[in-house]
Amino acid sequence: MKTKQSKFDLITHLKRQAAFSLKVFGPGPRIKGITDHIRKELTEVEAEPTSLEWIDIVILALDGAWRAGYTPEEIADAIEAKQTKNENRSWPDWHDYKQDQPIEHIRGIKWPKNLFATTQLIWNMASYPTTVYVLNLQCSVIMKLEKL
Question: Which of 27, 100, 119, 129 holds its CA 20 to 30 A away from the CA of 34?
Fold first, then answer.
């Protein structure tokens, strides 16, 4: 598939999508219909993981969000905020999981938001890779202990 430079505007798209969805599917939350359709699309993705059925799931999720009463701006802000929140969460080492296992953030641990930056700073100041390795190893050991 060829790609080109995209000038996609999420807020404009959400307004367009809501107008289309309202016209074609009618008003109301349609929660059962949307979630059933998402399940159907997930089955298709499991059968063909590289298909663009993933996009149908995204569109259905966005449809559910505006039908739940959120404006396009609120949806866009929520996507950005959730990504930032995920980036600031603590995550287990993906090497400890099989490809078909979900990986969820570690609950109950409040890591410093700047832990990576602190590690990099120590690396730059000390110029000794072992310093960074020890810091990362300590974090890894703590995370593994939390699993027990």
Answer: 100
- End-to-end Cα spacing for the chain: 46
Position 133 scores a pLDDT of 41
pTM score = 0.69
CB 41 within 8 A of CB 53: yes
CB contact at 8 A, 123 and 131: yes
**Contact status, residue 106 vs residue 89, Cβ threshold 8 Å:** yes
pLDDT: which is higher, 69 or 120: 69
**Cβ-based neighbour number of residue 145 at 10 Å:** 8
Report the distance separating Cα 103 and Cα 99, nearest Å: 10
CA distances from 101 to 94, 98, 106 (A): 10, 5, 15
| HSE-up of residue 86 (Cα within 13 Å, Cβ side) | 8
- Whole-angstrom distance, CA of residue 46 vs CA of residue 44: 5
